[in-house]
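Notebook entry, structure prediction.
Reason for the run: the old model in the group folder had no record of what sequence produced it. Starting over properly, with the input documented here first.
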Amino acid sequence: MSAMAYYRPASVVEAAKLAERDPEARILAGGQSLLPSMKLGLLAPSAFIDLGTVGELRGIRAERKSILIGAMTTHAAVAAAPEVSAAIPALAKLAAGIGDPQVRNRGTIGGSLANSDPAADYPAAVLALNATIRTNKRTLPADGFFKGLFETALAPGEIITAVEFPVPSRAAYVKFQQPASRFALVGVFVAQTSAGVRVAVTGAGACAFRVKALEDALSRRFAAQACDGISVSPDSLNTDIHASAEYRAHLIPVLARRALVCALA
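New structure, fully documented this time:
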């Protein structure tokens, strides 16, 4: 392995300056995706900029109509937070189902979103709940944040600082998981929000996306039966050793129906 530098900034401002100084450096959040990528030879950063000691990036705060989660807050912390369980229980349940205990206690919400793994769980919640991603430079709406395979709207060196989730009327997340990794082969998050019904899917395409046909049907009738007869095209969906595009397309309305049952329970 080639030599690399390691930085432990004390603030977001310092981290941003380090990132601007070295474009080949990588931001280190939980490291649950970055380090495995290095082991596989897919990445060889010149330096790590470790956000682990930046206290301002951690924590969960309940606001009047939303939940604000710091980017370096771990999945385990989100799952255990009473503020999250009280306001958005579907989000707490989602966090509790990510990976294994090691991943949940090391992985962070900001790191997951910045990485935009096509099978990650949080992107579905961000899209369905119409969340806002805050960075050191601006705020970004959920729609348009996920651009493609491991690609987001973040500019080089831009750092996620927090995610704000509006509290929905009702919501639920259901996934069909790969049993070893617990990544979603397909995951569907359904939410009845102040902006209308939103249905977001992860695990099926290059990145998380919304399904208009399901949103329209559920806007007319927010009931499990409204998902019946809805079909999703397999065009552009993923095919791999775990599932075909056609199978993933079939799963989307099936899991949406299950999510509705949970949301209405």
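Summary: The longest strand covers residues 184-193.
The old model has been moved to the deprecated folder.
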